Amino acid sequence: MSQLTLVTRAGSHDLPVELNQTVVAIAKKHKVVWGHACQRGVCAQCRTFVLEGAEFLNEVTKEEKLRLRKAERAEGFRLGCQIQVVQDGDVKLAHRPY
């Protein structure tokens, strides 16, 4: 079974992969603190660095293109409220707010 690893200041949390759910929604469900406010891609409090498994994630959304600089996206930054695991595979993400 695939695993979703969320890395926060409080430590690392290994969770089951839930397809087509945002990282923020999964974190909330499992009571993992993953800073967020708007959940629409505007505030960027859920800024996330993809450590592993980018190939299992959805494409970058228009909200991410508007909020994150091209250089940030190229480095592997996404928004937790926009990221969804769309294919079975191990994914590791780190919460990296500004």
Number of strands: 5
Give the terminus-to-terminus CA distance.
33 Å
Number of helices: 3
Structural class: alpha+beta
Give the amount of beta strand, in percent.
25-35%
For the biggest sheet, the summary is: 5 strands, mixed
- Mean of the pLDDT scores? 96
CATH class assignment: Alpha Beta
Q: Tell me the number of structural domains.
A: 1
Q: What general form does the structure show?
A: globular
Poorly predicted runs: none
Q: State the share of residues found in helices, binned by percent.
A: 10-25%
Radius of gyration: 12 Å
Could you give the order of the helices and strands? EEHEHHEE
At the third CATH level, what is the topology name? Ubiquitin-like (UB roll)
InterPro entries: 2Fe-2S_ferredoxin-like_sf, 2Fe-2S_ferredoxin-type, 2Fe2S_fd_BS, Beta-grasp_dom_sf
GO molecular function, one term: 2 iron, 2 sulfur cluster binding
Protein name: (2Fe-2S)-binding protein
Pfam family, one: Fer2
